[in-house]
Structure formats: structure tokens, C-alpha cells
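Predict the holo structure. Ligand: iron/sulfur cluster.
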Amino acid sequence: MLQQTQVQTVLSRFYAPFLTRFPTLQSLADATEEEVLKAWEGLGYYSRARNLHAAAKQSAPTLPVTVEGLMALSGIGRNTAHAIAAFAYRHAVPVMEANVKRVLHRLTASETLTERTLWEVAQKFLDADNPYDYNQAMMDVGAMICTPTRPKCEECPLALYCEGKSTPLAYPVRKTKKPTAVRERVILVCEAGGRYYLSPRTTRFLGGLYGFPEMEVGESVVWQGNHYALDELRLLGGVEQVYSHFRLSAHVYLLTLPYLIGEATAWFTLTQLKELPLSGADHKVLQLVNQKNNLLSIHKIYTA
Ligand code: SF4
């Protein structure tokens, strides 16, 4: 959960409910992917949930205890395997995360270190007799003392060994951020008799979640083989969602149909929709639908 997500966010909203829902590795392995994604909803980066689920299926009822065994599981690379081995099993292996990487660059006064050199340096500094305390201390120093912009070298327990302490901000060299790409889309809310059309997404990015039909921007859209001019459709509003590598900017249109088109199993009532795992963007679309329905209800009351 902590990959790409802040500790505070995870602790306040996700960690405890997820463990309550899946208290053992076996219960996670026995769950359907849809149930796991629903419990993960809001955390984003859904490949993590799919990998966690796959890893549980591969290893339940217990996790392997070696780094090699852990790395053989879906979604577990060297960083995660070392973190589990060091903190769960107290093995003498270094832990590597963003803060530790920064400390290692500064300790060695290195502008850039390759992954391989980083691991070599980490291994060299490791206190093999006290790996748990050492790793925890390195993470704490990185989070609280050797911070990105205001390192407190005068308070740092590593100052004696640190080669970069005279110019800490020079290490590591900062990568220039690429401007975020904007992906413009049309999202179609297809409604028939109080049911809405959503299908499982198949992309690697949001695979397993359900979604409203999403398409390229144009003067018209094609859905289920039929063309619809955008001006025939009712604009419900706009939706913005920031992802790791792009920003989605979508106009949401309502297509009211006299009957269900396509697979009947893809049509859901609003109550059924609450049980489906949806992306953040689709939750925002749903809010627009609810707003429209509320306005219609109020209008009916006043015109009755
Ligand atoms: S002495 Fe300064 S630069 Fe070196 S590790 Fe400590 S805080 Fe970071």
C-alpha cells in the first residue's frame, strides 16, 4: 500500500479496513479479484492490488521466508523482499526506499548511483548484527533528518561518516520533471430504464475495475456500433483525475436509451453500482449522475 502512497493516507483510510476484510493470507487468496479491488478502491495503482492477490494465491497460507522465495511472488521485487525479510524475519539485508537512497547518495557524495551501486553501498553500510534497528534508523534519518531540502547535518548521527555533508543539496542530482501529459476523453453514461452500462476494464492500468464507456474526443462518438453526435447527447459535466503519468480531462455525456443494448449483464442499477470496484474518475462520473437525478427529483416535486 505504501508504494506511491503516503503513510498517513494509508493508515487513516485503508490499512485497518483491508486487514479486517482479509485478516489472513488465506482469506485474501480465497477472495475474488473483484472483492480485492473493491477493498482497494480509492488507493489507486490497482496493479498493486492484483499483484497482492496473485501473491497470496501463490503462497497462502504463509509467505516464504527467504529473499529469493519472496522475489518469486507476483509484484515483489528486491526492495519489497528485503523490507519483508528485514522487518518480518530480521534477516541481515538492507532496506531500500526513496529516503534511504537519498541518504546513501549523500553519505558517499554521489550525484547519481546506479541501482547496482546503490545496493553495494547499502550492503557495505549495513549493520549485519542489528539489521532491524539499522534499517529502521536509516529510514528515520532519511525521513526526519536528511530531508530533501533541509538536511539537519548538525543533528545527524551519520555526520561523522558523511562525505556529502558540506554540500548535501548537491546529492543526488535532481531529475527534471516532465510536464504531465493531458489525456482528453469523452465518457458516456448510457442509461436505460434506470440501469447504467459499465464493463470491466481490460487495460493493465485499471484492469479489473468497472468503467463507463470512455472514448476519443470527436464530433461524434460510436458506441455499440451506433454513431451519436455529441450535441444529441446531454452534457453532464467535466471530470478531472490525476494519475501517475497523465491527467485525465473528460467531458461526460448522458445517452438515454429506450431499451438495453449489448450484454444485459453489463447494465446495473445505482444500488448495484455501489458494489462494483470503480476508479476515482468513474466515482466522479457517478456523482454527476447522482446530481442530475437529484435535480430531476426536485424538478418533479415542484412541477407535480
Ligand atoms: S550528515 Fe547531513 S547530508 Fe550527511 S547523512 Fe546526515 S543529514 Fe544527510
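The longest helix spans residues 280-303. The first strand starts at residue 181 and ends at 192.
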